[in-house]
Write a structure and sequence with these properties.
heterodimer, A: about 70 residues, mainly beta, five-stranded mixed β-sheet, 5 strands, B: about 260 residues, alpha/beta, five-stranded parallel β-sheet, globular
Chain lengths: ~70, ~260
């Protein structure tokens, strides 16, 4: 199977096979309740993570809340 | 005590009611436990937060939410670091997804050394955010015309700077802050410039609905103590505003009666 090549927060990362957003978040060991995901500049609603399949070349931003004024 | 002394004195923004008139930022603290302790001491119910990329190389690093619970505090996501309307809208769409919350703080800053609010970009971002269903509390210059325009656009709170962000200089232009308050039908908050408790008191005495403080607490030698001071300062200023101060007069007026003196 082809490698899945994604841009994650500006870094190229390779994964050995197909992934949904839910599987990616789990593979990255992130707490799904504390992050938000943007796929190719569109918000991915949390309720759809399991349905959204990722393709090579996809560009993701995964963010959370940090201290700020 | 009189009923009006003990009566609730909540303020309301976008239909949400708050007893504390101090909003605190969560940035610049030396660590997360100090952040949590200072915020607790401040009595604040609303805290500003920033939105940033997750550190993918350390996904188990402690997160703000572990120390400052969104179940307890109202998170007010900001657009710090956004220099264009497009960046601000994108950031807050992510914040809304992360927090499920429509109430946001818009700030679009110009470049250093002033970091002054970029008002044309702020107007553009406010329009886009309001159209997208956000309830926008907006950081702005202390310009009564700009403030009124933001209110007319549909911003839910107007937040003029007291002084440049992080400067600790206190309210530099009280006249303009007062004019903004007098013209506004939505809450007005001084955001930026508070250096110590007196500055927060002064802003509240002018008639602000609330004050937003970050650096003055986070960078104090003892942030927890300063958080308590800010809480007391905001409360003192609010009470003094409600009480109605005496007029300033250019002459002396003795406090003790001049009648009934012994001879």
């Amino acid at each position: 199977m082809d490698m899945l090549v994604l841009s994650l927060n500006g870094e190229q990362r390779e994964f050995p096979g197909a992934l949904s957003v839910a599987e990616l978040v789990a593979a990255l060991e992130l707490d799904v309740r504390k992050v938000a995901v943007e796929l190719n500049r569109e918000i991915v609603p949390r309720s759809t993570y399991a349905m959204v399949r990722l393709r090579s070349g996809d560009c993701l931003e995964i963010v959370h809340f940090i201290g700020g004024g | 005590m009189d009923a009006h002394v003990t009566a609730k004195d909540d303020w309301v923004v976008a239909g949400r009611s708050f007893a504390s008139r101090l909003i605190v930022g969560t940035g610049k603290y030396k660590d997360l436990p100090t952040t949590a302790a200072a915020i607790e001491a401040s009595g604040a119910e609303m805290v500003t937060v920033a939105v940033r990329r997750v550190n993918l190389s350390d996904p188990k690093a402690p997160m703000l939410q572990d120390y400052v619970s969104p179940a307890r505090y109202t998170y007010l996501p900001n657009t710090a670091g956004c220099f264009t309307a497009d960046d601000a809208v994108r950031t807050l769409r992510l914040a809304r997804e992360a927090g499920g919350w429509n109430l946001v703080k818009l700030e679009v800053l110009g470049p250093p050394p002033t970091l002054y609010p970029d008002m044309p970009a702020t107007f553009e971002a406010a329009a886009a955010l309001i159209k997208d269903g956000f309830e926008v509390m907006v950081y702005c210059s202390d310009d009564p015309i700009a403030a009124k325009r933001l209110e007319e656009m549909g911003c839910v709170a107007i937040m003029p700077l007291g002084a440049p962000i992080g400067s600790g200089l206190g309210v530099q232009n009280p006249l303009m802050i007062q004019m903004i308050i007098q013209n506004a039908r939505v809450p007005v908050l001084v955001d930026a410039g508070v250096g110590t408790a007196y500055d927060a008191t002064f802003a509240m005495e002018l008639g602000c609905d609330a004050v937003l403080v970050n650096s003055a607490i986070a960078l104090a030698d003892d942030p927890v103590l300063m958080a308590q001071a800010m809480k007391a300062g905001v409360e003192a200023g609010r009470l003094a505003f409600r009480a109605g101060r005496i007029p300033r007069i250019g002459a002396a007026s003795a406090s003790s009666p001049m009648t009934g003196l012994i001879r």
